[in-house]
């Protein structure tokens, strides 16, 4: 059984290189040829890059900068491939699903506990579309402020994991409470990278409409003081026929 943080054991913190040999010329040629001949339709539907922050639901002291590459399936449902950076060497560390309040309200109460709200994250200037003018984002931000997300982290690079290890971890959104606030040095580092000011964005979004009501089942940890962790255990397989 894995530990409660989804790992088989303690790992050193920091950024570790991914194990493996350098790309060969043959592999590069194959990838380039496949890229020219295949449609890659799902990937090409990623239309937005969002940079924000996330916290581990079972350990709010662990916080990461995240880069979401967003696909809009329809007006009520977004899906995001989440990376640890926007560089070409960025590592895929998880997936987030985002739904409007209309869809969220139809979910069972126990399911709602796995989701987080986005209103504070957006109003606080933490959620940004790098290099996209703020005025261009206004309508999108108004819509996103009323959404909820479920984010599973599959690769805990913040603790130095060289590979995706253990079970996925449920992540939560920054909130306006002591334990749910992002470390200022992380925000400053992100702001310096993109030449923005989260504080300025916060002030410019003061008039952004807020949801009339945020379901208390979301951001469950705020009411309960408890997060979620997945343990891995062996169970019997369901088979059409027993092994001989």
Structure notes:
Belongs to the OBAP family. The two termini are 28 Å apart. 26% of the residues lie in helices and 23% in strands. The protein is globular. Strands 1-2-3-4-6-7 form a six-stranded antiparallel barrel. The longest helix is centred in the first third of the chain and has 13 residues, at 25-37. It has 244 residues and is α+β, with helices and mostly antiparallel strands.
Secondary structure: elements and pairs:
Blueprint: H1 25-37, H2 41-44, E1 46-56, E2 59-74, E3 77-83, E4 92-100, H3 101-104, H4 109-112, E5 116-117, H5 119-123, H6 134-144, E6 147-153, E7 169-172, H7 184-194, H8 198-204, H9 220-224
Antiparallel strand pairs: 1-2, 1-7, 2-3, 3-4, 4-6, 5-6, 6-7
Low-confidence stretches: 1-14
Distance N terminus to C terminus? 28 Å
Question: Quick one: biggest sheet?
Answer: 6 strands, antiparallel, barrel
Provide the residue-averaged pLDDT: 88
Count up the domains.
1
* Oligomer description: single chain
Number of strands: 7
Strand order of the largest sheet: 1-2-3-4-6-7
Which value, in Å, is the CA radius of gyration?
20 Å
Helix content: 25-40%
Order of helices and strands: HHEEEEHHEHHEEHHH
How many H/I helical runs? 9
Tell me the β content: 15-25%
Structural class: alpha+beta
The best one-word shape is: globular
Family: Belongs to the OBAP family.
Region (Disordered): 1-27
Pfam families: DUF1264 (PF06884)
């Amino acid at each position: 059984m894995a530990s409660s943080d989804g790992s088989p054991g303690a790992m050193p913190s920091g950024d570790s290189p991914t194990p493996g040999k350098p790309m060969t010329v043959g592999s590069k040629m194959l990838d380039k040829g496949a890229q020219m001949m295949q449609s890659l339709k799902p990937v090409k539907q990623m239309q937005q890059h969002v940079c924000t922050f996330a916290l581990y639901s079972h350990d709010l002291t662990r916080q990461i900068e995240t880069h979401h590459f967003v696909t809009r399936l329809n007006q009520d449902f977004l899906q995001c491939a989440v990376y640890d950076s926007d560089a070409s060497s960025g590592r895929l560390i998880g997936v987030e699903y985002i739904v409007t309040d209309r869809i969220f309200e139809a979910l069972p109460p126990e399911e709602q506990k796995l989701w987080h709200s986005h209103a504070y994250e957006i109003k606080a200037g933490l959620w940004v579309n790098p290099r996209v003018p703020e005025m261009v984002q206004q309508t999108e931000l108004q819509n996103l402020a009323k959404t909820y997300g479920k984010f599973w982290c599959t690769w805990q690079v913040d603790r130095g994991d060289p590979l995706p290890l253990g079970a996925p971890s449920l992540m939560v959104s920054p909130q306006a409470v002591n334990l749910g606030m992002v470390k200022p040095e992380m925000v400053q580092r992100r702001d310096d990278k993109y030449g923005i000011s989260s504080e300025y964005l916060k002030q410019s979004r003061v008039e952004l409409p807020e949801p009339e009501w945020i379901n208390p089942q979301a951001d469950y940890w705020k009411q309960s003081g408890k997060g979620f962790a997945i343990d891995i255990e062996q169970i019997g397989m369901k088979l059409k026929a027993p092994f001989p």
